[in-house]
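pinned: reference chain
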Amino acid sequence: MAKKLPIGNRVRELREAHGAMTQSELGDAVGVTRQTVAAIEQRRYSPTLETAFRIAQVFAVPLEEVFYWQG
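pinned: its structure tokens
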């Protein structure tokens, strides 16, 4: 089983709070694939800083409300 990365996130929770936004819709909004969004949510992939900021911008929240360090 793949080890989870130390950066946690609330992406799925925020998508669901935004009218059940799909992974594909979020991916289209920030310029990544649905598979990339799924990997970020499952903590198998850490997004680039630019993508992280774009995700926060889509949800109109500060970056630290989307991503956090779990070490």
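why pinned: Residues 27 and 33 are 5 Å apart (CA to CA). The chain is about 50% helix and 10% strand.
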